[in-house]
């Protein structure tokens, strides 16, 4: 049986997009929502992000058979404890957090009597808040589900078909493996962007504004990523510490090799490396996995 009533906790970019996507693609599914910030609830009502927006977390989850936490990963525990008294015993609890092992553990601790099946839609933008969501966010994007050992196959299948209904392609993965993979493909790229934009901005004081003024396309792309939400990303690095440190050591080793090649004038090494990475990008584009999708617009924005 698929889900009939989804409660969305946290009505920013991810929560708002889920509400709009359910309305657009699964119109028979009822949605209720809650956000801890009253101003966000007001905007969520104005944008009709959910069928009903409750002022109380317990009311928001009442009768829901699926509850999805869409709050920063460091807020999962508090958010879960706040709605716990309203849960149906058979409700499935999921989330969209960018790291999975610590979220999985903290939700299991906060809601010991419930089925918890964490998930991560690998889809987002640098925007946040209730005005940022749009219904096509999950189209043609991966959603990684990380069921704990012993999770009921039927519930995993229901969650899988929910995300497929929103347009995603679903992959099942172990939470620890997810955290290692995402550390290198998402978390460290954000760390690099935050750092290099900071370095350039410090330098700007020396060069009197020339760094940002003459920044070309590559650097501008870094500034987009570096504009991402500070609370969300602080929490990702606090909660995926081990995997990020492991991958960061590897990255710093590779960067040191590159520095050595430049110092030694080793053009062959640089050419080989740049050719390898160019082939990787071309494969991604050929497989249609880049973001240049015609429908990646925010059509349902007010
Ligand atoms: N932004 C992205 O690109 C992206 C992509 C995939 C997954 N994620 C994950 O999704 C989650 C939400 O990210 P977002 O981009 O939607 O953030 P957001 O800042 O747009 O929205 C988060 C919302 O959660 C609310 N909130 C915080 N604590 C709460 C609590 N205790 N109870 C109820 N509401 C609470 C905030 O008021 C805010 O409105 C994060 O865990 C993030 O790691 C983000
Ligand atoms: O496209 C962007 O702006 C994103 O940063 C999205 C992105 C990513 O790194 O790919 C960011 C965090 C998520 O958990 C998933 C997606």
TrEMBL record:
Reactions performed catalytically: prephenate + NAD(+) = 3-(4-hydroxyphenyl)pyruvate + CO2 + NADH
* Broadest EC class assigned to this enzyme: oxidoreductase
A single GO molecular function term of this UniProt record? prephenate dehydrogenase (NADP+) activity
- InterPro entries per the record? 6-PGluconate_DH-like_C_sf (IPR008927), NAD(P)-bd_dom_sf (IPR036291), PDH_C (IPR046825), PDH_N (IPR046826), Preph/Arog_dehydrog (IPR050812), Prephen_DH (IPR003099)
Give the domain of life.
Bacteria
The alphabetical list of record keywords is: Amino-acid biosynthesis, Aromatic amino acid biosynthesis, NAD, Oxidoreductase, Tyrosine biosynthesis
* Pathway where this protein functions: Amino-acid biosynthesis; L-tyrosine biosynthesis; (4-hydroxyphenyl)pyruvate from prephenate (NAD(+) route): step 1/1
> In this record, what's one Pfam family?
PDH_C
Report domain Prephenate/arogenate dehydrogenase positions: 4-292
| GO biological-process terms attached to the record | tyrosine biosynthetic process
- Member of which family? Belongs to the prephenate/arogenate dehydrogenase family.
**Protein name per the record:** prephenate dehydrogenase
For this protein's source organism, the top of the classification is: Bacteria, Pseudomonadati, Pseudomonadota, Alphaproteobacteria, Sphingomonadales
